[in-house]
Write a structure and sequence with these properties.
CATH class of the largest domain: Mainly Beta
Structural class: mainly beta
Shape: flat
Oligomer: single chain
CATH architecture of the largest domain: Beta Barrel
Number of helices: 0
Distance between the termini: 30 Å
Number of domains: 2
Strand order of the largest sheet: 8-9-10-11-12-13-14-15
Number of strands: 15
Helix content: under 10%
Radius of gyration: 20 Å
Length: about 280
């Protein structure tokens, strides 16, 4: 499970970055980050073929990737609506040239394509924004502390909690609802290999002082966390304070647990957020 970002250089060529983590099988803790590009061949106005290749790093989950170098090639069939939402199915091959790891891959993606106004200068005329809508976003620098809720939550150092640092990106389709993607990694508690990636929904209520709640699902592993195949869920709730028009601070408490493992943790979180907006429209 993971996320991907693409940027089209023209109507056919694009660059991409993706990151995924294992959430099933016996390879919890495996994660990969790939950079690459691709070419889109349009079959009809709403159907296209994507040819993609990439390279990056991967490791964890007892997967033999050697020094970590990973290569990837994919072929995908994508259908896109006029509103910009798309669905893609792809097949591919991934391999570590320095080790024994080789695998066939099958992927399903759902997302949204959008265009932004061109800004050759620092100022954009109001008339140039006709047809665009506002995309409200928030980026958060986050710290989370885990403490055990199950005495067998880790395969080693079960008596130690651990701390994590990461980033969170929120999109607000309405003033009270947001979609969120989050990634964190451990830096203490003998859990240095632990990483987690989550996607979910959140509710935001209030003004200068506000309340928030989140429901998340994703993949985690490493650091001795007994997460089974790696699939995890997390719920959070807390209060926040708007420091000014663009900045807020949020304190949350929550619970994180594995679907198929013994990992259960109490979560204490603190984040500093920056709000901004950009203008987007569906691609022509």
């Amino acid at each position: 499970m993971g996320v991907e970002w693409r940027h089209f250089l023209d109507r056919s060529r694009f660059v991409r970055i993706e990151s995924e983590g294992a959430m099933g099988g016996r390879s919890n803790g495996y994660m990969q980050i790939l950079l690459g590009g691709g070419y889109r061949w349009s079959i009809t106005p709403l159907l296209a073929l994507d040819i993609m290749a990439g390279a990056g790093v991967a490791g964890g989950g007892r997967v033999d990737t050697g020094g970590g170098l990973l290569l990837d090639a994919q072929l995908g069939l994508v259908t896109q609506s006029k509103s910009g939402y798309f669905f893609e199915l792809s097949i591919g091959h991934v391999w570590a040239p320095q080790a024994s790891f080789k695998a066939h891959s099958a992927s399903a993606r759902i997302g949204r394509a959008f265009a932004v106004p061109k800004a050759a200068n620092q100022e954009v005329e109001l008339a140039d924004l006709a047809g665009y809508s506002v995309l409200p976003l928030r980026i958060r620098a986050a710290h989370q502390m885990y403490s055990r809720s199950n005495p067998r939550w880790r395969t080693h150092h079960a008596d130690l909690g651990f701390n994590n640092l990461g980033a969170q990106v929120d999109y607000f389709p309405t003033a009270w609802l947001f979609l969120t993607g989050q990634g964190l990694a451990a830096y203490s508690g003998k859990a240095g290999a632990y990483m987690i990636g989550l996607l979910g929904l959140g509710i935001h209520l209030g003004g200068t002082v506000f309340a928030e709640a989140e429901a998340l699902i994703g993949a985690a592993g490493g650091g001795g966390a007994a997460v089974g195949g790696g699939l995890v869920r997390q719920v959070n709730a807390g209060i926040g304070l708007r420091l000014n028009e663009t900045t807020d601070i949020v304190a949350k408490v929550g619970r994180l647990e594995a679907f198929h493992g013994r990992f259960q943790a109490r979560v204490w979180g603190l984040s500093l957020g920056y709000r901004f907006a950009t203008f987007t429209r569906s691609p022509q």
